[in-house]
Structures are given as C-alpha cells and as structure tokens.
Amino acid sequence: MTAKISVWDIWIRMGHWAVVAAIAFQWFSGEDLGLIDAHATVGILLFGWVLFRVIWGFAGPKYARFAQFAPKSVTAPFESARALVTATPEPTPGHTVIGGLGVFILLTLIALAALTGMASSDDIFFDGPLVSLLSNEWVELASRAHPRVTDLLLIVAGLHVLAIAWHQLIMKEPLLAGMWHGKKPGHGHTPGQPPANSRMVWLRGFVFLMLCLGGAYGLFGIAIGW
After folding, report:
1. pTM to 2 decimals?
2. What is the mean pLDDT of residues 8-28?
C-alpha cells in the first residue's frame, strides 16, 4: 500500500464540512420567514468563503491550488470521467480532473446563489443588500434566478455526494477519511512545501479566511445592510 502524505490542510477540511452544513441550512431555511435574516447571513458568509477558496487556490498548499487539478488538455476531463465510470482509480493524492471540475462548478454556483440572493427582493419582508444599488429590472432578474440557481446547486451537490459514495464503496478510495484527517495515499507524490499541516499554512489560511469572511459580512451585512 502506498504511503500516506498530508494532502488537505485544515482550512480545506473545515471549509468542506462547513459548506455542507451551510448548504443544508440554506435549503431548510429558504422558505422560512422566521429564519430569513439567518439565511441572508449564511449566504453572505458562503460568498466570503468562495472568495477565500479562490485566493487559496493560488496561495494555499500544493493540493489546494487550482493548478494541481485544472485540466491539462481538452481530453483530460473525458479520460478522467471514463476512469470514474469504469471504477479505475487515478494515481493522484488530490482531486482528479473530473473532481476538480466539480470544485470549480460548485464554487461558481455557490457564488451565484449568494449574489442573486443578495440582489433579491420579495417586495414585502426582505430586500437583499444589493437591491438598493440595482435597477428594478436587475432585482427582478435576480429574484427569479435565485431559486433556480439554488436548485441547480443542490443537484450538483447531490451528484458530488453520489460520486463520493462511488469512490468510497466501489473504488475503495478513502475520500471521507482523507477529508477528516487530511492524509491520503501519496501514489509516489510529495506533500509539497510548505506541507499542508504546517504552521505556516495554518496561520496564512487563518488570516486570509478572516479577511474574506469579515470583509464580506462587513460590506454586505453591515456597511450596505438589508
């Protein structure tokens, strides 16, 4: 069995589970007027997390970086999808190409759901923080788009869960354990420098995450408000 290496840093792992919980809460709270403020707050924080993940995709450790799992050729996604369908493990500690595309799609949909939510209005109980800055036409468009983007996000998230189950149960790859403790089979690859479990990565990620979450809430939740 190939030796395990440190792959996922604490911020990728915490972010993964926090986003799972946040999306579940958003789905549950979306039609509950009593939770509308909490729903809006979580949406703003999700947008802040997307900002962090984008920065971390360039400034994070080796396997958090987009360059590590972005397609290297036009055919790479098709080859990766074929490997997934045929239950052929790909020798990489990080995301596969098709898994990496899933990350890009999820980040895009989370950002769109947050932005359309912040630009939405029900004309009675709630105006998002961006409503006062936009024309009525844009607000109407965002209000119509938000539930559709949210539905699409839930569908993609569901496919993500099914893919993980396929990896775990059929391909016998420990994805869930890896996202819990951060280590996965290395397949001959190195953990990169600095390693994902290093103090430098911990401190750098903490600073970026606080700036992104605090900046998003400070701008949309306090400065503009709703």
Report:
1. 0.94
2. 96
